[in-house]
What does this fold into?
Amino acid sequence: MTDRALHDLVIRALADAPFRRSAEWRQRALADPERVDRFARFLARHFYFERIVHFFKYSGALARLTGRRPDAVLSQTSFDALLPSLVLGSQDSARAVAELVVAHVKSGAPSPPIPYHDDLLRYEQTMMVVEAGPRVWREPSVSETKGVGSGEWEAPHKVEGTALLDLIYDLPAVLPKLLRPWTTVPDAPARPVRLIVARSRHGRVAVAKATDAIVSIMDLADGRKTLDDLAREAGLRPAEVQATLQGLTELGAVRFSTGS
Amino acid sequence: MSALKIGAFYNPHLGRELAAAQGIDHLAMADPPRADDPWWPKIQARYTLLLHDYLGQLSEPLDERSIQRARSLAELYRTPWVAEHFQCLHTEDGAYNLNYVFPPLYTEEFLARFVANANALKGRLDQPLVMENIPGFFDVRHSQMAEPLWLRRFFEATEVGFLLDLPHVWLEAHYRGVRPADWLAEFPLEHVVELHVAGVTEDPDLQGPWIAPAEPAEEMLEFAAHAATRCPRARAVTFDAFSPSLTAEVLLRSVERIRAALA
It folds into this structure.
């Protein structure tokens, strides 16, 4: 085993609590287990602090009404109880931590009530869960220049973890206002919106309003259907499929497999 | 030793105070400026800015995208040098990421990797590269040499500058049970270009001290004064605190106290 591979084991032991308890790790006796455990707990709290502050920033801005700061959950026993099962960067762990945050924030009934509060918490929770997952840190040295319609990359597939979110209120209209100074909480228009939340290979989370064409393609893109198949089955013009796929690719919601 | 410049990190939530502050010679930039930061134009016009962003981990070569990002930030800031860390915080396949600085194994293989990749990065930058030491909370038994020796060999092989983080040295000394000044003496101080000074506080998870966005204690300031006399090429000292919880009062008072300690 190379030193680099060995170092990866150390990183995994710090990030992955179940692995840290495994015989595979413990038998190697690479480091003082007590020190490793303490540092892993420190890293976990830091890891989720950054994500909670970022993804629940709107709830943070509303904390003076709810009386609940989202990151306060990190000092609660419910978070400590999760520590033995956390795998930093996994969707399951992100979901578990986000659920704690939502429960904590919901426990403080805002006064006056915020009509779109449930929508907002679902939005923030979705963003945090979608962000989790392995990421590409380095691009391959040979750039991938192939794209939609090149004839070589013709089987788009939905990227795992991409989420469609149906909301009762038009949150995108109110979110920027929540982060600016306000005295009375800004209103969100009561009109349904459907959002698509996706993550790039580099871990950047992006959100966009989902059109009917987007919803159709996300349903159909399974890595086997060609662009012509998608156009036919979705009842869309090929140019519309191409344009939609271009947007979804940039968003990180769709990738292309080689057509072979 | 020429007069040391004393600065801090740019904390965007303190933009108003930093834009009007006196007694700060430079600001280190940990993140690119946000497009909606109203204070950025004044900050950029007023201060010497030091690039201190995450560029990548030099256990692997930086890809072209990261190099271009580093070049573009260096140009935006007109930075006198570009800083990166001795860190290896994500697995090679990207599956696990600590999201926090973490040192490499101090082995020949990692030394060869860091030397090769730092030399490659240095060749693509228009400014000198400086590298910052990172504290270990525990030793990995596979390491083949002590950190100070590994660093010495790295700097001799690359001729890049040393960004000496003093609290990192202080913490390692604490957890090794040795005097900070004795541990510091092992490091290749002749390569130091910049020093970091910061506060430490007790961390409940670590059950001991760790870096925090707090004022440096008197002991840390005395340690900084001691270190500065042993770094003949040092040009700048930076109060190393970058956090939404940092207050303007703590930042400004820390810079003032560092300046007084080094006078």
